[in-house]
Amino acid sequence: MGRWSNEPFTMLLKMLKEELLSDDADLPNTYYGANKVIQNLRLSYERIDACRNDCMLYWKEDNLLDSCKVCGESRWKVEKRNREAKNKKGKKVTSKVIYVFKDIFSNDMPS
Ligand SMILES: [Zn+2]
C-alpha cells in the first residue's frame, strides 16, 4: 500500500522479528514470504469506486456511471474552479475508492 519496495519491507519484517516479537512469533521473513501468505489465504483485493457520500458503489451495471444515482454527486474528484482532477496518465481520479477482499465477497456485495 505504501509503495515500499521489497527490500525495506523485508528489513521491517526482520526488525519486527528481532526487536519486538518473541522468538516463536510466526511472521514471514521476507516480502516474498509475506506475499505468499496473502496468496495462500487468497486475500486478493479489488478496488471499487464509491460515492463520496457513501450512497452507492460504481459496481456491476453501475460501473459506467459518472455521478451518484442517489445524491447526484460526481464520481470524480474535482479540483479548484470545478475542473476534474487528472492523474499523471491523464485519467480522471475517483473521489472515493473502497477495497474489497475478493474471495470474501466473491459474488454478492454487502448492501
Ligand atoms: Zn451519493
Description:
- The protein is of the alpha+beta class and 111 residues long.
- The chain folds into two domains: 41 residues, no CATH class; 69 residues, no CATH class.
- It has two helices and two strands; from the N terminus they run ααββ.
- A two-stranded antiparallel ribbon has the order 1-2.
- The radius of gyration is 19 Å and the shape is elongated.
- The relative contact order is 0.14.
- Zinc ion binds next to loops.
SSE layout:
Blueprint: H1 6-20, H2 31-41, E1 45-49, E2 97-101
Antiparallel strand pairs: 1-2
Compact description:
This protein is 23% helix and 9% strand. By secondary structure, the chain is α+β, with helices and mostly antiparallel strands.
Give structural attributes.
2 strands; 2 domains; single chain; alpha+beta; binds zinc ion; 111 residues; two-stranded antiparallel sheet; 2 helices
